[in-house]
Amino acid sequence: MEIYPLLLKIVGSLWELAAIILVGLVLEQYIPAEPDQPFRISLFKIRILVVFTVIGVFLGNEIALLIGRVAAKLGGDGTGLGFGVDLQPRVARIVAGLMIFDFFYYWYHRLQHQSSLFWQQHKLHHADPALNVTSATFHHWLEGPLRTIFISIPMTFVVKLSPEDLAIIGVVLTLWAGLKHANVRVPLGLLTPIVVGPQLHRLHHSIEPQHRDRNFAAFFPIYDVVFGSYCGPQPSEWPATGLPNGEWPKSVAEANLWPFVAWWGRIAARRAPADYQQASEIGRIQVRSDPSRSDSSR
Ligand SMILES: [Zn+2]
Ligand SMILES: [Zn+2]
């Protein structure tokens, strides 16, 4: 592993994160959807994000090297599997790339909500009680590798994207994530079912039960419309966000360990079903249900 290129990537990613957060936090002061958000929550998220970014860049680098090696063996171009359709010009590839990204993202994101296994990894993003620009990349660091498996690799089988195309899509994705999570009271009006904005995505993070498991798309709500998960906002609807039980990590270390602790709890419950069942029956512990989600579908 070459350490200097990796350090440069880490510094670049941290700088990009700082720039987006700084600009976003300033803009959010003018027309906040949720006024008086406690700044200490945003500061706590920033501390977590710095750690997650360093881990994410390191993991991303290793995964990219691995994919390059596998692609070379399979006859790809070494920069990705690269077996998809070669669209021209670049703008057509970028637009197609965004549409295809969102198709795979929609189903991956839906899986994160509907599978209790995947929900434990996604839960941190939804635990955020102060939705704003710092929430945009506030995902557990496992998100990057999972997106590579469920989105990036399948994409390369549909359309052939160069490293530059992927970089452009990555920039659009990052900027759009900042916009749709921003704490700004900017309704998109007639554009609401056409592009994902801050109001539609706030409903996805809503604490209200009628908004649960709705609006999964990253860019194009048409996928939610077609697959039956669209929930349009009322004109003045800007609900509170977070988990219904108010669960929130108390430290950076706890945020890192959250999914692993939950998964271990499930394994432990399976390994000692009799003990847990007995304890559950007398009301001391809860075995199968996740108190952060009250519906029985997961
Ligand atoms: Zn979600
Ligand atoms: Zn979100």
Strand content: under 5%
Main β-sheet: number of strands, strand sense, barrel status? none
Describe the oligomeric state of these chains in a short phrase. single chain
Tell me, rounded to a whole number, the average pLDDT: 86
Query: What sort of overall outline do the alpha carbons produce when their principal axes are compared?
Result: globular
Helical stretch tally: 10
Percent of residues in helices comes to 55-70%
Number of beta strands:
0
How would you classify the helix and strand content by structural class?
Answer: mainly alpha
The termini sit apart by: 40 Å
Low-confidence stretches: 282-289, 294-298
Order of helices and strands: HHHHHHHHHH
Number of domains: 1
Question: How would you describe this structure to a colleague?
Answer:
This protein is mainly alpha-helical and 298 residues long. It has one domain. The protein has ten helices and no strands. The chain is globular. 29% of the residues are buried. The protein binds zinc ion (2 copies).
Defining traits:
298 residues, 0% strand, globular, binds zinc ion
